[in-house]
């Protein structure tokens, strides 16, 4: 009996096609970073002020608060990132999400949490 060696002939070519590396098609291309939706964020200076000028200019009515809250909040899922609320704020509390000052980054979550609690 001959020792087992590599397959030859027709068997070899059909086997080769079975183990050939497969190319995985790229059907989904991740969006460019600038295409990912962002929101504006209300930060610490709003606490205790609640001027509400921002509420009046928001074209999608996504700045909310209530009597028990000590600040206003922006809904990160619905904010269209237009920036209209930034200038009317008398205490410069509103920033684009990627420009929130380092000491106030926790407010990104604080804004989002307000709307998550409201939806429960
Ligand atoms: S950035 Fe525009 S849409 Fe977002 S909260 Fe401010 S005013 Fe409203």
> From the 3D coordinates, which CATH architecture would you assign?
2-Layer Sandwich
Q: According to CATH, what is the topology?
A: Alpha-Beta Plaits
DSSP strand (E) fraction? 5-15%
CATH class: Alpha Beta
The total count of strands amounts to 4
Give the fraction of residues assigned to helices: 10-25%
Structure class: alpha+beta
Give the termini separation. 75 Å
Explain the overall architecture.
With 120 residues, this protein is α+β, with helices and mostly antiparallel strands. The protein has a single domain (35-118), classed as Alpha-Beta Plaits (2-Layer Sandwich). The protein is 24% helix and 8% strand. It is built from 3 helices and 4 strands; from the N terminus they run αβαβββα. It has helices at 9-19, 53-57, 106-118; strands at residues 40-42, 63-64, 73-74, 94-96. The strands form 2 sheets. A two-stranded antiparallel sheet has the order 1-4. A hairpin with an 8-residue loop joins β2 and β3. The relative contact order is 0.18. The mean pLDDT is 84.
